Amino acid sequence: MQKQNALHRWIDRNILELGRELRLSYLPPLMVYCAAGVSGLTGIVGTFFVKDYLGLSAAFLAALGFWAGIPWALKMPIGHLVDLLWRHKAGLVYLGAALIAASLAIMIGLIGQPQAMRAVMPVEAWFVLSVLLSPVGYVMQDAVADAMTVEAVPRLDAHGEPLPDEAVRLMHTTMQMLGRVAIIGGTVLVALANVVMFQGAEALAEAQKVAIYLRIYEFALVIPLLSVSGVLLAGVLKRREARRLAALGRDRAEIDRLLHEPEEKTTPNWWILGGSAVFVALTLAIGLSGAEYGQELIFAGSFTIIGFMIVRLVRELAPDARRMLLGTIIVIFVFRALPGPGAGASWWMIDELGFDQSFLSRLDLITSGLTLAGLFLFRRFMAEKSIARIVLFLTIATTLLSLPIIGMFHGLHHWTAGVTGGMVDARFIAIANTALESPLGQVSMVPMLAWIANSAPPHLKATYFAVMASFTNLALSAAQLGTKYLNQIYTVSRQVKDAATGAITTPADYSELGTLLVTVTVIGLVLPLAAIALTRLLGLRSA
Known about the structure:
By secondary structure, this protein is mainly α.
C-alpha cells in the first residue's frame, strides 16, 4: 500500500502537476516549439538520400553541419530585435515559415523531379542550399517562441491584480519545461509517422521507396503551417484578454501596454547590434572568399564577438548571479561542444548491421518516446540539482552507453547472438542502448532556460535567451568542427555508385571507424570533467 501511495505521489508531482499547471496562454509558443520538433520528420529520408544519391564524404557533411549551425549563432541579434520590435515579432515567424517551406520545396523537387532540378544547377548544390535555408527559418521562429514563453505567463490574476513573484517564477519554470515537452512531443509524432510510412519498406523496390521519401517531404509542409497557426492563436488570445481587461474597467491605453509591451521598455543595445553586424560581415566575407581555414576563422570570430556580448550583458546582473551564469555557460558549452563520429557511424549501421528505414524509424520512436518520458522522470532532478552535477551524471552515463556500439564494431553482437540463440543481436542491443540513453537527451538544457526566464532582467528576456542560445549553439558548431577533424584523421567511406552506369566509384571502408568511436568516447568523458573542475578552480557556480 505504501509503495502504491509513493508511486501515486511521484506521478502526481512529476506528471499530473505539470498538466494542472498548463494554461491556454502557453499553447501558442508550444505550437511553435512543436513545429521545431516535427522538423525531424525528414531526418531518416535525408540520411538515405545522402547515402544513396549524393557522393558527399563524411568530412564534407560535418563541414556542412558547421555552416548549418552558424544561423543559430545569429539568434543573438534576432532575439534583441524581438525585444525592440515586441509588438511586431510575429512577422519573423511568417518569414521563417517561408524559408522552411522553400527548403522543403527544394527537397521535394530533388526527389520528385531530379532531372528538372539538375538542369538548373547540380543536385549537390541544391541540397546544400536546402540545408542552409532551413536553419535560418527555424532560428527566427525559435527566437520569437522564446519571447512568447515570457509573454505567455500572465502578470495579472482573474481580478486584474498583479500575481505574486513566487507564482510567476513557478509558471516560468513550468513554461520552459512544457517547451521541451512540446519539442520532444513533436519528435514522437514524427517517429510515429515514420514507423507507419516505412512499414515493410525493406521489401519495396527502389522506386517505391523514393515515392515514400517524396510523400514524407510533402507531409513536412505542415511544419510552417503549425508555427504560423501558433502565432495566429496568440493573436486570438490577446484579443480575448483585451475584452476581459476592458470588462474589469481597464482603459484602452493600459490594456495596450499590458498586452503589447514588455514589462520594461527596451532600448537598442548598440554593442549587440554592432557586434552582430560585424559577425554577419565576417561570416559572409570569409565564407564567400573560400579561405582554407574559413570555418576556423568564423568560429574564432564568432566566439570572440558573442563572448564580448555576454560580458556586456552580465553587467546587468548582481555579482552572485553573474558568477552563476558564467559557471553555467562554461559547463554547458563544453558539454555541447563534444564531437561525434559523424555520418560514417550511420552508414556503417545501415551497410554492416542491416538497419533499414523501417528499423531506424522504430528506433527513432523509442528515442523520442523515452526522451519525453525522461523529461518527467528527471523533472525534480533538474529542478533540485546544479547543472554541474547534472552534466557530471550525463557524462558518466553517456560514456558507459557508448560502449555497446564500440563492442558491436568488434563483433559483440555476433557473440551475444550465438550465446542467446539469436535473440540478443545487433538490433536488440541497439534498442536496449537507445532505451537507456534516450531519457538523458534534454536534461541539461532545462535548468539554464528556467534560470534565464526567472533571473534575466525583465526588459531583456528575449535578448538573454538569444545570447545564451547563440553561445550554446556555437558549441554545436565547435562539435561539428571537431567531428570534421576526426573524420579527416580517421577516414570512413561508404560505397558510392555512378548514377548512370551503376559502377562503384568509391568502395566502402569502415576499418578506422572503431578507433574513431573510441576517440569520441574518451573526449566525451575527459572534457566535461575538466570544465567542471575549471569552474570550481575559478570560484564559479552553476544554475
